[in-house]
Amino acid sequence: MPKQPLKIVYCTPALYMAGGVERVLTLKANYFAEHFGYDITIILTEGKDKPLFYPLSDKIKVINLDINFEELWTCSFVKKVYVYLAKQRIYKKRLTVELMRVRPDITISLLRREINFLTSIHDGSKKIGELHVNRANYRNFEKGDSNLFKNLFAKFWMISLVSHLQQLNRFVVLTEEDKLAWSELSNVVSIPNPITFETEMISPLTGKRVIAVGRYTYQKGFDLLLKAWSIVEKQCPEWSLVIYGAGDRTPYIHIAEELGLDNNRCRLNSNTSDIFNEYMNSSLMVMSSRFEGLSMVMLEAMSCGLPVVSFACPCGPKDVITNEVNGLLVPKEDVYQLARSMIRVMSSPQLAKKMSIEAKKKSSDFRISVLADRWKYLFESI
Question: Under DSSP, is residue 176 helix (H, G, I), strand (E, B) or coil?
């Protein structure tokens, strides 16, 4: 008899948003279904009547359990506890019904609410968890949004999480650096996310333009980047900086004004629908993040042949950038060294060209075809 295709279920909240996790999940699921012939089902809890943002293969089934945990966003704290517990019971019941019906070979949690009970569902499937941020910043609170109660909650929550992760067949993180952080676990493997687009083209590095990409949040460190740029723009008057990202730009516009930055050479833009073209018109990518999981925009920029100057933040840059080869690593949050390293690459076309070639080479390690084989090996090994 012919071998049956591997049957895999993914559990994730929603696919109606234009987020990085949603984009990567869609890319992987499409590849597994189309190239490996896997029988893929994605089970959602949110966005019952909302269209999927990224296109899915017709071969993939989507089930929406319509739990609507998003209702919690509008609840008071006391009501939130009651509503959460009630919805969690409903979620466990409905997910159990679906897994017993589908009978997958493997069930994968993207470490949302189902991780609290997934291994107690005896549907016969092997259980895998995927984490898309680093441990230190999982359930991270924005600066100023933390207090004693939240810190205690986070501590006890982590203890509970680790106990659930120990029961998984495998726990997948994005980087070797983060793998070391989960010292309590013996089931951890690292598989990075794939680049979401591939190109044979490479930036000519002729535009005197530095690019940064990311949400306007504390995590992305654009406040640090603007301080560094205030040093750079005085020494490199022909160069400009462009930032693209979603979120509220107002605080960063104020920082730029306070620093007296030239607004013709320092542009804070909203998202763009053609980030590829923006990379191709740039000559250097800078990443000022305070922390990452594995920066997809850094990998995208490198696939376009951009050298990268990045803080050596946890986690990701040290897994991707070989210092002095395909980019420069800077001590985390060191504004002066960030500026100095940017000026160094901007002032040396030979160095930039050498790093461009190496960046392009390194990006090939993150092609979906390469990483899908690592997932295939993992699935078949368990």
Answer: helix
CATH topology match: 7-194+367-381 vs 209-365: yes
Q: What is the pLDDT of residues 75-104, one digit of tens each?
A: 887 888 889 999 999 999 999 999 999 999
Within 10 A of 336 (CB to CB), how many other CB atoms are there? Answer: 12
Q: In what order do the strands lie in the sheet with 188-190?
A: 61-64, 39-44, 7-11, 106-109, 126-130, 170-173, 188-190
Instruction: Give residue limits of the domains in the chain.
Output: 7-194+367-381, 209-365
Q: Which helix (H) or strand (E) holds 171?
A: strand 170-173
**Rounded (5°) CA angle 255-261-265:** 125
Report CA 261 to chain centroid distance, whole Å.
30
Q: Would the pLDDT of 140 be above 80?
A: no
Q: Which fold has domain 209-365?
A: Rossmann fold (3.40.50)
pLDDT greater than 80 at residue 324: yes
Residues 321-350: what's their mean pLDDT? 97
Give me the long-range contacts of 19-23 (CB less than 8 A, separation at least 24). Answer: 20/132, 20/193, 20/296, 21/110, 21/132, 22/53, 22/54, 23/54, 23/196, 23/296
Report the range of poorest mean pLDDT among 125-129, 244-248, 315-319: 315-319
Looking at CATH, the fold of the domain delimited by 7-194+367-381 is given as Rossmann fold (3.40.50)
